[in-house]
From TrEMBL:
Coiled-coil ranges per UniProt: none
Organism: Roseibium aggregatum
NCBIfam families: marine_trans_1
Main location: membrane
Record membrane topology: Multi-pass membrane protein
Name of the molecule in the record: Ammonium transporter
UniProt xrefs under Gene3D superfamilies: Ammonium transporter AmtB like domains
């Protein structure tokens, strides 16, 4: 049982909203199974490479929001985590998430087997499936990589490279696939009626919980918080790079949400994909405007980093249900997500939780909000069911992540020395500075 089968009832023709006129549907000739196979596979491939491009977005966003002495490290971590996610999702992830879950808590172990050359995929009954299994694997894999990208930004500037990569192996090979199986693999939460269309919780909150536990165990950057409770700003190296990263992520999100329709072989499916694109865009736009307005009111100046994270919060918030809402409902969902970020960022600072790029408010808190509010537009689920799923994912990821982080901390260590942190991880850990012409590490903050 895979994500396509598990979500088909929810994703096809939901609520009749934005429906194609009846005469057009009645007059439309039937599409052959071969044509459906081609278009469904094409949707997975296009959506997959758009989500893969989000890896570049995360890299540029993080490169812009860290200090110049840590930019190369963030670039390295992002290409490395994407590569590790691909290998681990083939080795264990896909089968853990989709094979043999059958209403339970975990799938099966073992590498994923692609279609034979020139062959067709088959479903659980042995019938020819409506898409290439290789395209399905690729689309699911890039979601897995996105989860790891969330952790990278939060823990930037003070975590060692190799402990981070070991955690990425566990996250992409075990934590994310097992958690994903509960809904998208037709596991126990799917049977309860829990709804998460494209991953506000399954991707974003899972990554957010892992990032939060890591931040608590790792500790804040040296000098970030004073003994008197003061917060010392550590501005990022490049707002143009951070802005570029946000636009890349925004573009990639159309594949993230749109291709999660998981079918493009009918007029209804294509209409739904189009509606998802529109709602996704409107939620992000609302997030930007709300973040700008609130920072102007609260701080008397518009904060560009809040505007960028406002867009991302809007995108995360609408991801749990991008099909059912009206345009106004999408604007509300995205706008509230951005407001959560504006108020959560200073709250984390008061709690001395150092999140370099704001990933915890954007991905964890906005992800919780987006998942909880699904019944606002989708009456097929309930707020209680949504809360059950949110809590289940939180407990599972926090417990397992904490165990892994603590094992790493007390064995090989997870934090660089104070001298290495002051020098910058570009020089201390990888020996390649992003901006060597700017001067020596001692001359830069």
């Amino acid at each position: 049982m895979n994500k396509l089968v598990a979500k088909s009832a929810a994703s096809l023709g939901a609520f009749g909203l934005m429906a194609v006129p009846a005469f057009a549907q009645d007059a439309a000739p039937a599409v052959s199974p071969e044509t459906q196979y081609i278009f469904n596979t094409l949707l997975f491939l296009i959506g997959g490479f758009l989500v893969m491009w989000m890896a570049a977005g995360f890299a540029m966003l993080e490169a812009g929001l860290v200090r110049s002495k840590n930019v190369s490290m963030q670039c390295l971590k992002n290409i490395a985590l994407y590569s590790v996610a691909g290998l681990l999702f083939w080795l264990t992830g896909y089968n853990l998430m989709y094979t043999g879950v059958d209403g339970g808590y975990i799938g099966s172990f073992g590498p994923y087997a692609f279609d034979a050359v020139g062959g067709f995929a088959t479903d659980d009954t042995g019938a020819v499936a409506g898409y290439s299994t290789a395209s399905d694997w690729f689309f699911q894999m890039v979601f897995c990589a996105t989860t790891a990208s969330i952790v990278s930004g939060t823990l930037a500037e003070r975590i060692k490279l190799w402990p981070f990569m070991i955690f990425t192996v566990v996250l992409t090979g075990l934590i994310y696939p097992i958690a994903g199986s509960w809904k998208w693999g037709a596991g126990w939460l799917d049977g309860m009626g829990f709804s998460d269309f494209a991953g506000s919780t399954l991707v974003h909150s899972v990554g957010g919980w892992a990032a939060l536990t890591g931040a608590l165990i790792l500790g804040a950057r040296k000098g970030k918080y004073g003994a008197d409770g003061s917060v010392h700003a550590m501005p990022g190296s490049s707002m143009p790079l951070a802005t570029l990263g946000t636009f890349i992520l925004w573009l990639g999100w159309f594949g993230f949400n749109g291709a999660s329709q998981l079918a493009m072989g009918s007029i209804s499916d294509v209409s739904d994909v189009s509606r998802i694109f529109a709602n996704t865009n409107m939620a992000a736009a609302a997030g930007v405007v709300v973040a700008m307005a609130l920072t102007q009111i609260l701080y008397k100046k518009v904060d560009v980093t809040m505007a960028l994270n406002g867009a991302l919060a809007g995108l995360v918030s609408i991801t749990a249900e991008p099909l059912a809402p009206t345009v106004l409902q999408s604007v509300i969902v995205g706008g509230v997500g951005a407001a959560i970020v504006v108020f959560a960022v200073p709250l984390l600072d008061k709690l001395k939780i150092d999140d370099v790029v704001g990933a915890i408010p954007v991905h964890l808190l906005a992800g919780i909000w987006g998942t909880f509010i699904v019944p606002f537009s989708n009456s097929d689920t309930s707020y209680l069911t949504q809360l059950t799923g949110i809590a289940a994912y939180g407990v599972f990821v926090v417990v397992v992540s904490t165990i892994v982080w603590l094992i790493l901390k007390y064995t090989i260590g997870i934090r660089v020395s104070e001298e290495e942190e002051a020098m910058g991880l570009d020089k201390a850990e990888i020996g390649v500075e992003a901006y060597p012409e700017f001067g020596t590490g001692s001359q830069r903050v």
